[in-house]
Every structure is written in C-alpha cells, then in structure tokens.
Specification:
The structure holds two protein chains of two kinds. Chain A is built from 24 helices and 17 strands. By secondary structure, chain A is an alpha/beta fold. Chain A folds into three domains: 2-233, SGNH hydrolase (Rossmann fold); 240-383, Rossmann fold (3-Layer(aba) Sandwich); 413-590, Aminopeptidase (3-Layer(aba) Sandwich), CATH 3.40.630.30. In chain A, helix 21 (439-448) packs across helix 22. Chain B has helices spanning 3-18, 39-53, 59-64, 68-78. In chain B, helix 1 (3-18) crosses helix 2. Chain B is globular, with a radius of gyration of 11 Å. The N and C termini of chain B lie close together (6 Å). The chains are: A alpha/beta, B mainly alpha.
C-alpha cells in the first residue's frame, strides 16, 4: 500500500491506522501467519497497532501477545501462563535506556562500574537464554539509544563514569551475543534515534505523560525497521535492482548530451552525488543483490554511458542490460523471466514519477519516490528492501551463479538435442540427508521458494532443527555442480513417515536449476532411501498458490496417481515404489 | 480562528482517529460519549489534533482537559 511505502507521512499513518488496516485486510492477498510476542519495558500499544500495518503490507498476518506494562522480564522469567500458552514464533523486546536499572556515578571505582555493566547485561542475557529454551523463538531485541542529557558533558562519552560510555559498552555486549546466536537480531534504535534526532525521539513529555520511551511520531519509522527484520527472516527480501540510467545513475541524457556531456565523477557537486550513488548501488553486488538496467535508450548509448571512465559502475556489473524503447514493465518482466526471478523481487529505481507509476501498477514492483539525487541513497537505504539478517555463502556468490546461468543459456543454442546440452554441462549432484552446516541455507531456501514449491510450507530455523533431530522424517537436500560452477544447495525434500507410506510434506527447488532434471535425481534418491526404510508408497501433495503453477503437473509427470482433490484444487497423489525405474539420465549423483 | 471552524475540523480528526463517520462532537462531548475513547486512543487523538492545528499542548493541558469545549478554548487561543 502506497501510504506505507517510505518516504511516508507518519502523522497520517497514526491517525488513519484503523481504516488502513481495514483496507489491507480486504485486499484479498494471502498472508503467512506469525505469532509475535511484544514484550515492552515501556508502553507498546501504538507500536503493536502500527507494526501490524507494516507486516500486513509485507504479506505477513501477525497475531500479537502484548505483556502488561513494563513486564518484559517478569513475563519470561516467571513463565507467565498467557505467554506460555501463546507460544510465540517471534519475541520482540522493546526496551530502551529508560530500562537501565544499574545507576552509575563518579564516586564509583572502575571495578564497581565494570560489575554494574556485567549485571545489567546479565539481566538481559538470562532472559534471552530462557526465551530460547522455552520457545526456540526468533528474538528481536532493541539496543539502547543515547541518553537524553550528558551529566559529564563531552566526557560522558569517553569516561567510564559517563552514562553515554556505559550505554555504548552495554550495546557492544549485545552485539557480541548477536554474533554468537543465529536466531537473535538487534533492532538498532541507537541508529534510528540518532537519524531521527535524539532530542525529538526522546522528548521526555512522552515518558512523563504516557510512559513512551520515544515520541509518537517516531513509531512508524520504528515499526518499518522491525518489519524489515521480520520480512527478511521470512525470506521476503527483494533480490534485484532494475535501474534507469539518465538522471538516475548519471545526470543528463546520454542520447542527447553525448558520453562527454553526462554528469558523473568528481568534477562538480552533482557529479559527486551521482558517483556516490553508483558506488552505493555497486556495493549491493557484495551482499548478493542483482543489478539490472531498464532504460529507454539506444543500447550503444547506454553502454557508452556505463563505460564512462569517471563512473563507479561498469557494464560487467549488471546481469542484464535492457536499453531499448519498449515499455519498462515489459523489459523488467523479460529480465525476470531470463534470470528466473519473479518481477516482484525487483526494486525499480527511476527519477521519473510516470515510469514509476506504470511499473508499480503493472508489475506490483516497489518503485520508491527517490526525490533528487542527493536523497536517493538515504531513501532507498531506509526502505530496507535488502535487509541483511544472515550472510550465507550463497548470498555472497549469488551474482557469480546468475552470471554462470546466463552463460549456460547462451550455450544452449549450440546443441542438437536438449539432452546433449544437459550432458555437456557435466552435472554432479550430491544428494543426502541434512547436515548441521546446511540447515541455515535449507531454511532460507524453504522460506523464499515460491514457484517450484509443491506445498509452500514455511519453517523457522528451530522448526527445521527439530525435523533434523527427529527420526520420523526422511530428509534430502541436493547440491548441484556443473562445469560453470557450484549452484549450492538447490533442492529440499522432506517426507514424514506414516507406517509403510511416506507423506511428502515439502518438495521444492530453486528456479536457478529449472529444466536440468534435478527433480528426477531427487526422486530417485527419495525412492531409494524410502525403500531401505521399508516404505512401499509415496504420497505427494500439491497446494496451488498464485505462484506455483509450474509444478501443478509434477507428480503426474513423475507417474504418481491422483487419489484426492478438494474444492480448492488441493490434490493428493500416490506412487507405489515397487519396480520403480530410475529417471535421471544426465546427472552423476553422489549420496 | 473562530469556534465553528475549529469544531468542524475537530470533527474530522475525531472521525479519522475513531474510524467512525457518524461521530458529531460539540463542546460538551467527553470521553464517556465515544465508545473507543480510552487512555490509549487519547494519546493518538491528542497527537492528531496537534498535527491538525499545528500546535503543541502542554502536559498540564493534556491532563487537565475535561471535555471538547476546553480543547476548543485552548486551540482558539493558539491557532
């Protein structure tokens, strides 16, 4: 919903939240349900109602538990029955510097202050550990914002007796915990409040009157930040930029002004602004974001502009460059098809409001109002489209993988038959049970695969760990390598043992290896493993969604028989595995 | 600003905040007259009124206001 897209009008969101919620709930999108406990050290009611809007807007339907005023610690430590019964998937701990209970003063020794720092930290650590053991839930914890006043003036920051210093060191302890705990995330209110302005953020009348640790107007920004963390954990990050060129990546129009006439580099203030923006975009490659161009230009002019010696970006940084006179929504759709992504995974960056309007209306693509060049970075950055919650090896290599994909597509044209092409790829698959090191990647893949996904079931990391530790399941993950490179883990299958049959509750594959016969290799391995455990029948389930039509006939293609279909077209399929013949003929499989 | 104008604009704010197109406020209206007007919605209401008239109530004013009439008086002096 446009009202909730940053840059937004906080006052309007706060005032109209009831009707915004009604509108979101009636828009007909299907949403993933999540149980979120909001445990506050101050008032949280408006935070809950605004957070709900941002989550609904990301396709997540939250159910909330809210603790009584400032009972965040007691609720966990003394196992409040309401919280226990609720059993959250996610716990958000909304604490602030108002909740620092250890008082420090200049009369104390260094040892005493160190002890207070440890005590204050332990107060939180025991609670996180308890949440982990009670629920295995994801924890989102506020860090601490800078204090509203500085008793020691500037020395407050550098001297151990200063509250500013104490808070900074306390935050470092939080970050150390975050570094060692995968399901623990910091909601960085220290940055948010600084960016908003601590004087306004912490305006004390909100505390005196309503026991709010921040001003009401800052709540939408706080909630956007929390919802970015949550949607990222749920695999709902965007994956690619579709970038305009003229007046977006450089100043001026390369077709009119010529390469020498465009504004980029270090010579003028405007040129510097475009240069820094190019650097910002380029850095996204390192966190696995794909760069593409959608520009109305002659291709040779576009390439010449990108080859400008003073620019930071080069043509080789892009997975795809579409510079022509077709409508941009068509170009983005084509780019998406070529690299195997959905259009909605793109963020469209264009200075022209009319282009933004068409692309977002036609494709449902986010197209933020980026303003003038000196605000491009700040606005895109605040939107949090690519919020990093984990950096897996595959994220870092994603650009290489998609580049290899593009190479493969070019080579396809040279072969007589498709099978010859597949054989020429020299594919090797490793298909085996999960191992602890894979579980993060498996969970990530499970939560973001939409198209080749039969049941679209989502799992948190701890749910996946439970499956890993249980002997009621047969699990397979498949890694595929070919002569162009390693695709990483690309397919996951989980079956639940039910007597002598196996219920296949999850079957998914990354779209980057579509049409490589990897699904046959997975089925071969599944049948082998199942029959070893005395299973005679495989049962497959297909639940249609708006996105997974490509696998509607998968079980039929595999030779399963349809045994059930309900009103919503959910189907159940069955395969007797006696006499099963191996289907994969092109991949060498190791198990 | 005259009181008629203030009432008209206040009425819009009340309708937005309580999401009810049938609300009609006057000087006598109190929290008891509007079903959803509790301490939590009060924060949101005060903030929305401040935004509408580009004024800030003091802490004393917020806790001292007995009815919409008193709110109108404060706005009339400031806006």
């Amino acid at each position: 919903m446009d009202i909730l897209n940053y840059p937004f009008d906080s006052g309007y969101i706060l005032k109209k939240r009831k009707s915004i919620k009604r509108e979101l709930l009636s828009d007909g999108t299907s949403r993933i349900k999540k149980k979120i406990a909001v445990l506050g050290g101050s008032t949280t009611s408006d935070i809950v109602s605004v957070l709900e809007l941002f989550l609904l807007n990301e396709g997540i339907k939250p159910e909330f538990y809210e603790c009584e005023y400032a009972q965040y610690w007691q609720d966990v430590m003394f196992e409040n029955p309401g919280l226990m019964k609720f059993s959250p998937d996610i716990v958000y701990i909304h604490t602030s510097s108002r909740n620092i209970t250890e008082k420090i003063s200049v009369k104390q020794s260094a040892d005493e202050i160190e002890q207070k720092l440890t005590d204050q930290y332990k107060h939180f650590e025991v609670m996180w550990d308890k949440i982990k053991s009670l629920f295995g839930a994801v924890i989102i914890q506020n860090n601490f914002e800078l204090p509203y006043y500085r008793l020691l003036g500037n020395k407050d920051a550098s001297d151990i007796h200063g509250l500013t210093n104490f808070i900074s060191r306390l935050n470092m302890k939080l970050y150390d915990y975050a570094g060692g705990n995968e399901n623990f995330f910091i909601n960085d209110i220290n940055y948010l409040s600084a960016s908003y302005g601590v004087d306004k953020w912490s305006e004390p009348k909100w505390w005196y009157m309503y026991k709010y640790c921040l001003c009401l107007d800052a709540i939408p920004k706080l909630c956007l930040n929390i919802s970015n963390i949550i949607k990222s954990i749920m695999g709902k990050n965007k994956k690619a930029f579709a970038l305009d060129l003229d007046n977006t990546l450089w100043g001026g129009v390369v077709g009119d002004d010529g390469v020498d006439g465009i504004v980029i580099g270090q010579e003028t203030a405007e040129a510097e602004a475009y240069y820094e923006f190019q650097e910002y975009i380029k850095a996204h490659r390192d966190i696995g974001v794909l760069l593409t161009v959608a520009s109305k230009n002659e291709e040779e002019n576009a390439l010449a502009g990108l080859d400008h010696p003073d620019g930071a970006l080069k043509p080789g940084d892009f997975i795809s460059i579409k510079a022509n006179w077709q409508p941009k929504n068509i170009n983005i759709q084509n780019t998406a098809d070529e690299i195997g992504l959905l259009p909605e995974s793109f963020v469209f960056v264009d200075d022209n409001p009319a282009e933004r309007e068409i692309v977002s209306a036609q494709l449902g693509v986010k197209a933020p109002k980026i303003g003038q060049v000196d605000s491009y970075i700040k606005i895109l950055d605040t939107c949090g489209f690519f919020e990093v919650t984990s950096l897996s090896g595959d994220d870092l290599k994603r650009n290489e993988m998609y580049e290899a994909n593009a190479k493969r597509n070019r080579q396809k044209a040279m072969f007589e038959s498709y099978k010859d092409y597949l054989l020429s790829l020299e594919m090797n698959a490793l298909i085996r049970d999960f191992e602890p090191v894979d579980i993060q990647r498996i969970t990530q893949l499970t939560n973001k695969s939409n198209q080749f996904n039969l049941t679209t079931k989502r799992f948190t990391l701890s749910q996946m760990e439970d499956i890993y530790n249980s002997d009621e399941y047969i699990r397979l993950c498949g890694r595929l390598t070919d002569k162009f490179g390693d695709n990483g883990i690309v397919s996951v299958v989980i079956g639940k043992i039910n007597g002598d049959s196996l219920d296949i509750i999850l079957w998914l594959m990354s779209c980057r290896v579509l049409k490589r016969d990897m699904e046959y290799a997975m089925l071969d391995s599944l049948v082998k493993k199942a029959s070893k455990q005395g299973i005679t029948t495989l049962k497959g389930y297909y639940y249609p969604t708006a996105k997974n039509n490509m696998v509607s006939t998968l079980y039929a293609d595999f030779g399963f028989e349809k045994i059930q279909e309900d009103n919503e077209k959910n189907t159940v399929w069955s395969l007797d595995i006696k006499g099963y013949g191996e289907k994969n003929k092109v991949i060498t499989v190791k198990e | 600003m005259d009181r008629q104008e203030i009432i008209k604009r206040l009425n819009e704010v009340f309708r937005d905040v309580f999401d009810d197109e049938n609300i009609v406020v006057d000087a006598e209206t109190t929290a008891d007259d509007i079903e959803d007007w509790d301490s939590i919605e009060h924060i949101n209401l005060i903030s929305a009124v401040e935004g509408e008239f580009k004024i800030r109530f003091t802490m004393g004013e917020v806790s001292g206001m007995k009815n919409v009439g008193e709110m109108i008086e404060i706005i009339a002096q400031r806006a």
